[in-house]
Design a protein that fits this description.
Length: about 250
């Protein structure tokens, strides 16, 4: 099982948000709920009410850090940094969607020209590359576990580890001794320079006195994660020969 997501570096913006939200989170030291955060944003919103779908999206991105109490999601101050990252990502996604929608509306000529200028300025600030991925983005890959791997050793088992690579960047997990259902739970970050390359995961069997054995491969397009939503799922492993049946998931 793997958890994969594109994030964007925005340190200055994050520092401002953390500084602003810290007193609010400390006042609610038992955890901030979706409703409390919505009310807080409404109180600071100059143009009416804050979009509830944006608030929901922020909390959805925090699922692995959420406590459920009486049916309500709660985020503690311990996860304020992660919460600020999620808030920035959601704001940027909704801002781009809003600009794209507005740009397609029929406007008076002067209004359209004025809007197009603002739209170009906003796009320039975002600095997306030729593949539509914002500059400064990085890919987080959490390699959680694998199951039903193909045994490669004489004892009908394996010592598996995973190698994760994108472009010329490469990381690998620890190997797990004698296990066909290994649990690694290791997270890696990769800089995204173009978006045209692929994320490649190799599962190998560690051998002491010979070359490590191939146990499966997974190849994913970076563009599949362009919307910045986290993907958390099982993936089938494949052989190097696309026509050869294989076994195992990661």
């Amino acid at each position: 099982r793997m958890s994969i997501r594109i994030l964007r570096r925005n340190n200055e913006r994050k520092q401002l948000i953390v500084k602003e939200l810290l007193p609010f989170f400390e006042r609610n030291n038992h955890g901030v709920t979706t409703m409390q955060f919505k009310q807080y944003l409404d109180s600071r919103c100059k143009n009416g009410k804050y979009n509830p779908e944006m608030v929901k999206s922020v909390f959805d991105r925090m699922n692995e850090h959420v406590d459920i109490e009486r049916g309500s999601k709660k985020i503690s101050v311990d996860y304020l940094n992660e919460f600020s990252d999620a808030f920035i990502e959601v704001e940027e996604i909704y801002k781009r969607k809003q600009l794209e929608i507005l740009s397609k509306k029929n406007m008076h000529t002067d209004q359209r020209y004025e809007f197009e200028d603002r739209y170009k300025e906003a796009k320039a600030i975002e600095k997306t590359n030729d593949h539509g991925i914002m500059e400064g983005s990085y890919l987080t890959v959490r390699v959680v576990e694998a199951r039903n791997l193909k045994p490669m050793d004489n004892n009908n088992s394996s010592d598996p580890y995973a190698v994760v690579s994108i472009e010329d960047q490469k990381e690998e997990t620890q190997f797990i001794e004698s296990n066909l259902n290994p649990k690694w739970d290791e997270t890696f970050k990769f800089e995204i320079r173009t978006g045209k390359h692929q994320l490649v995961i190799l599962v190998l069997d560690r051998d002491l006195y010979a070359a490590d054995d191939f146990q499966g491969k997974l190849t994913l397009d970076i563009m599949d994660f362009k919307d910045q939503m986290k993907v958390d799922k099982w993936f089938d492993l494949h052989s190097t020969n696309p026509h050869e049946p294989w076994q195992g998931e990661i």
